Description:
Helices cover 32% and strands 22% of the residues of chain A. Chain A is α+β, with helices and mostly antiparallel strands and 100 residues long.
Amino acid sequence: MDGERVWEVFRQEDEGDPMMHSGNVNAPDEELAMHYAREMYGRRGESHRLWIVAREAITELEDPDLLKPPFDRSHKKPGGYVIKHKLQAAKERAASEASE
Amino acid sequence: MHETDTIQPLNARPPYPPGNAKAFYAHVGSGGKVEADDWMPDDYRAAVLKFVEMHANSELMGVLPERDWIMRAPTLRRKLALTSKIQDEVGHAQLLYRVAEDLGKPRAQMLQDLLDGKTKFHNVFHYPTRSWADVGIIAWLVDAAAIVSQQALRDSSYAPYARTMKKICWEESVHIMHGRDVVLTMMNGTEKQRAMVQEALDRWWGPLMQMHGPPTDPARDKDLHWGIKAKNNEQLRQEFLSIYVPRLLELGLTIPDPALRYDESIGRWEYTEPDWVELKSVVTGHGPASQSRLEFRRVNFADTQWVRDALLGNAAAA
Lengths: 100, 318
């Protein structure tokens, strides 16, 4: 309705959990947005904490050139280092040196 | 094995060129997801909007038959449970109207179209309630039939709808337990109570069998084709029957369809053809309670206008 804004709601299920996006509510101001969010996402005691954020305050980064650049990024991940055969070769070498 | 040095494929969002309907339909056709701010063809947008708006309307109108029983609930706990269920259902309407609003139709317009009879709501909410047993049958079986289709909607290609369905399904599972508990309590009661449950089941069975709609040709069902919904009408009805027929029979209830039986050889339920003429007539506003329910909504909407005015007026003044 006229005069209303969209507020995105993030919910923390338990202490220490990440804030997860839950959905959104429509409200004319922050105070009502808070009440609506509580009714929608916290009335069963299922939330430890709620964040209510005006949708226009969110900046989205979705540029694939930045997020998924077309280069190999395996050197940044544990899975990029395949050591099984190298380790085996190193152990065999060490064992044969010791027996000499 | 050596460390790989391959070029990773570009993974753009959305993963199809905006403006290219053919690429879009290939994306959703292969299980891809769409977010609210992604480009989408107008006919996909219109189809999701129609589907979600009808669902939202059904949640909002669906509380009216139950509302009639708040003051007549037999115990305080039942009254609390029923009130809580009604709050949940109105909450579902709010969640779904939000999803629909982001597709471009203002909530005020959706409410007006509902009040004007221009948009539809589910057939089962066009019938009157006669006894407390109806409250149990509705909460158990109407919600069960609904959850069968809603669980499939958690796989919808329209991601904001799919996410909303996860929350809704979780809440509906509480309603089903509440309804089954009401039915079980009555079945363990007096002869008269058992007769009330049977009488309610007899009246609701027809509308329940119609609820998922007539079988459609999967090749021509665009909601299915575009992944807006994940299962066709007949699959949903079969699933409902497989779970709930045994649960009704084990209580000593009789299902009012002599033709109902499970055909092992083809792995499906056979039943008397539901009355599709009645379904069409009911959902177009000609059901026994269609007009009284809409009139209640109109009066209620007018009566509460001052609340909306006050909230928006205060916000504007602040």
